[in-house]
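Running this now, will post back.
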Amino acid sequence: MVGLRAAAAWRFGAPWREVAAAAAGAAARDAYGTALLVMATVVAGVVAASVPVTAPLVLGQLALAAVAVDARSRTAKTSQRRPRGHEAAAGPVTH
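Update: finished.
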């Protein structure tokens, strides 16, 4: 799971050792995200074993799941940093 998280978090010019270390920390801190990646990997394995021709497609779906978990983790960090009462300051939502 650390490898999937590292692949999703990698950015151009970032050293792999630092990315892998950050991914290992994220895997330890975000148990729910790690569980989602484990489930995605199991489903990908079952689908690829059931219909072998889909194996290349399943890898793309697995990469998408890793990027989604990374984005979820980053969004959670950002929302935790907002000051209290931030929602009230934005005003009512109108459609």
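Residues 2-77 form one domain. More later if anyone needs it.
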